[in-house]
Write a structure and sequence with these properties.
By secondary structure, this protein is mainly alpha-helical. The protein is 69% helix and 6% strand. It contains 24 helices and six strands. The chain has a two-stranded antiparallel ribbon. Strands 3-4 form a two-stranded antiparallel sheet. β5 and β6 form a beta hairpin. α5 runs antiparallel to α6 and α15 packs antiparallel against α17. It is found in: Cell membrane; Membrane. This is Hydrogenase. It is a multi-pass membrane protein. Keywords: Cell membrane, Membrane, Oxidoreductase, Transmembrane, Transmembrane helix.
Length: 654
């Protein structure tokens, strides 16, 4: 297992070097085989159960830096790695593919570090690899105006660095004497009532990358500046390892005395994030921006599961805590596959249309059936339609929050009950959102004659979405030896043959493999009716009904705005929409030559949270710049001397 991961690391480093040398083909090959290596390593780690190997990398003084992959991390790395592999096998839309490969290699190195490193300083370095690797990929895509792309990436990095600073504070508070993670639980327990504050720092740190509010507002700009392949990595393996890191902090290190307040906060943040993210996703006109908000929504759902696990842990309900944590893993594993198929479908649509706009384009009619099936299954999973992976994950999540009556805290019970109502609203809007992106983005009347390539990875991910759900009753056993909450009996109580159950068989149950089998059998009925009609009456061609029109105009199409405008008006108190119309005239005002129409929705947190901070930083930088850049050589030498004193002092302190 360790050899497989070591081979993957070496190939990722090779991909970075080859990318910097502008050898894009070699870098792509290195990424493909490196990803295969970590997939093999993840499988071996899951098979090994509680006994995967631990490797020592180096030492920081007397502190060894070790790498160990537990079952939950291996699960998330495996499914996210499959989406990454599909992205590497798809045709690239990056304007600078070689540099994109370097960024992808850096991001994957960071992902492995976050998933397996057991020491704080090395972990923070790997965490920064995730951030900068993603930024390099988005900049190398070059699919947006350079200035806008730079602003989006700087905005992303700025918010991610806020999270990095929060994690650095956690390192200073918990790892001042010992940076090994094994000692952090004991160190955290010494803080008493202040332990909740450290939990908030962890939520800020990891939530910045997970897109927990208010940080999800960097998602649409960053994703919208890159390709679908970049989105597949950001929404897959990178998101997954960030969730695992947050789960380790909340379930392994956090003192049980602070678990109730932390769990309530996580459930509230996850629910509100999911609702707001899917509301804004429904209004988007760009494939990438819509899917970016959908990623934040699914991350919010997983955080709800993690919050529920924390609440059950606080009451000593370890079986239910294991159920909730496992549900989060199940949900994000299936999300990686579904989001990968939709992100890569967006690239294929853009290769035909020339842009990522959600508009009727007849792509599905012109594309091979492989693209249509893969995209359909991905959209069904993100809409939580049976029998896909998304349905199994969200069904389990609903059953988890319905267990609120076991809790002793009234506040915790009310929080989970209200979360269930929020999850229901999220699921309904998610269904409408996926209907919009699939129905408008792939169907329509516009004629295109472009060939479509790269659809086989999309089909593979789509079929894996089905296979993931169908195999879930048997693959859950690989998580039985997870390090925490470490209740193998809970995993055994989640499965009864091919049936999924939430610990008790009579509470609720479903069977994804039986749903899939029955769906295939029931589909034979309409197929038989069509065959009988064709044999008896032959093929008939009749005009499509269009509200009584004898001839349907070629430009008669539902737009993205028309599809979502009703909800836009209903939730106007959230969107605060604005509509602008500009006219250009020729000679007289009543001779309109051009009419420009655009509309937008106001962000929730940007105007009152982020923009004041940006203005403050700009003002301070202007004032400090006048003082620092004063042209005095003596002043510059003094600055250098002060900096050296600070560095030496920090070394002696450590």
């Amino acid at each position: 297992m360790l050899d497989s991961f070591l081979l993957g690391v070496l190939l990722f480093v090779l991909a970075i070097v080859l990318g910097l040398l502008r050898l894009s083909f070699g870098a792509r090959i290195a990424l493909v085989f490196g990803t295969v290596a970590i997939l093999v390593g993840s499988v071996l780690s899951l098979v090994a159960g509680s006994g995967p190997d631990t490797g020592q990398l180096w030492s920081l003084g007397t502190i060894p830096v070790t790498w160990h992959l537990q079952a939950a991390a291996a699960w998330l790395v495996f499914w996210g790695g499959l989406a990454a592999l599909a992205a590497f096998l798809s045709p690239s839309r990056a304007k600078n593919p070689a540099i994109w490969m370097s960024g992808a290699g850096l991001a994957l190195l960071g992902s492995l570090g976050v998933a397996g490193l057991q020491e704080g300083i090395a972990f923070l370095i790997a965490w920064e690899f995730l951030s900068f690797g993603g930024a390099i990929m988005l900049l190398a895509d070059g699919l947006q105006h350079r200035e806008k792309s730079g602003q989006s990436n700087l905005y992303m990095l700025a918010l991610l660095e806020i999270g990095a600073v929060a994690l650095l504070l956690c390192l200073l508070l918990l790892g001042a004497r010992n940076t090994e993670f094994a000692a952090w639980a004991g160190s955290w327990a010494t803080y008493g009532s202040a332990a909740f504050g450290i939990a908030v720092l962890f939520i800020i740190g990891f939530g910045a990358k997970l897109g927990i509010l208010p940080f999800y507002e960097w998602y649409p700009g960053a994703y919208g500046s890159g390709s679908g392949a970049s989105g597949a990595l950001l929404s897959g393996i990178i998101l997954n390892v960030a969730y695992f890191a947050l789960g380790r902090a909340m379930l392994d290190w956090l003192p049980r005395s602070s678990a109730t307040g932390t769990g309530i906060l996580l459930v509230a943040l996850g629910t509100i994030t999911a609702i707001l993210a899917i509301l804004y996703a429904f209004q988007q006109e760009d494939w990438r921006r819509l899917l970016a908000f959908s990623t934040a929504e699914n991350a919010g759902l997983a955080v709800v599961a993690l919050g529920a696990a924390s609440l059950f842990r606080a009451d000593g309900l370890n079986m239910l805590s294991t159920l909730a944590w496992t549900v989060g893993l199940i949900h994000l594993g299936g999300h990686s596959l579904a989001k990968g198929s939709m992100m890569l479908s967006a690239d294929r649509v853009a290769s035909v249309r020339g842009d990522y706009a959600i508009a009727q384009s007849r792509v599905l009619a012109l594309a091979p059936w492989t693209l249509g099936i893969g995209a359909l299954l991905g959209a069904m999973s993100l809409a939580a339609m049976p029998p896909t992976a998304g349905f199994a994950g969200e069904w389990y999540l609903f059953q988890t929050v319905f267990q609120d009556f076991h809790l002793t805290s009234s506040a915790a019970r009310v929080t989970l009950a209200l979360s269930g109502a929020g999850l229901a609203l999220t699921a309904a809007i998610a269904l409408a959102t996926m209907i919009k992106v699939f129905g408008l983005g792939l169907l329509g009347r516009e004629e295109n004659q472009h060939s479509i390539t790269g659809r086989w990875p999309i089909l593979a991910l789509g079929l894996l979405v089905l296979g993931y759900a169908a195999a879930l009753p048997w693959t859950l056993g690989f998580l039985a030896e997870d390090n925490w909450p470490a209740v193998p009996a809970a995993l055994a109580s989640m499965v009864k043959g091919p049936i999924l159950i939430p610990l008790r068989f009579h509470f609720a149950f479903i069977s994804p493999p039986l749903l899939l089998l029955m769906g295939l059998l029931l589909s034979l009925i309409p197929l038989a009716m069509l065959g009988w009609s064709h044999l008896r009456q032959g093929r008939r061609r009749v005009p499509v009904w269009g509200h009584g029109l004898r001839q349907i105009p070629a430009n008669n199409a539902v737009t993205a705005l028309a599809f979502s405008n009703a909800l836009r008006e209903f939730y106007s108190f959230v969107y605060r929409p604005s509509t602008n119309t500009r006219k250009s005239h020729s000679e007289r005002s009543y001779f309109v030559r051009e009419l420009h129409f655009d509309y937008s929705q106001a962000p929730v947190f940007g105007p009152w949270l982020f923009r004041p901070v940006v203005r403050f930083v700009q003002i301070m930088s202007d004032r400090l710049g006048l003082a620092l850049q004063n042209g005095s050589l003596n002043a510059y030498l003094a600055y250098i001397g002060i900096l050296l004193i600070i560095i030496f002092a920090s070394v002696f302190y450590i």
